[in-house]
Structure formats: structure tokens, C-alpha cells
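Team,

Forwarding the record for the chain on the shared tracking sheet. I've put the sequence and predicted structure together so nobody has to dig through attachments.
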Amino acid sequence: MIRGAIAFGLVLRLSSSLISDNNKLEVITTTALTLVVGTTLLFGSTMAPVQKWLLPKLTEEELIKQMIP
């Protein structure tokens, strides 16, 4: 998530002097924001199922056994 914020911040720092056409700058900004929000929602919503799939449900005894060597 933080990478998306940094990427969007860098896009916002683009100056009009680098890109002569203001419409292109707006398209780049909109595209970056869409990608950041879309990937954050997509990957953020899939984290719970992935975590359940990767990490098995442990009983209380198994958790205590893992915490105390």
C-alpha cells in the first residue's frame, strides 16, 4: 500500500514543464490513481483467504506450544 502512495506522490510531482500537454498529465495522474486504488482493493481483499489457506487454524494448546520453546 505504501508503494502505491509513493508512486502516486511521484506522479503528482510531475511538472507541467516536463509534459507540454496538460491533458497528458491528467491522463497519467488518473491512470496512476486508478492502478493504485485497483491493486490495493484487489490485493487487500484477497489477503484474508490467502492467509487462511497458508496458515492452518491452530488450537490453543498448539499455540502455547509454539510460543514456549
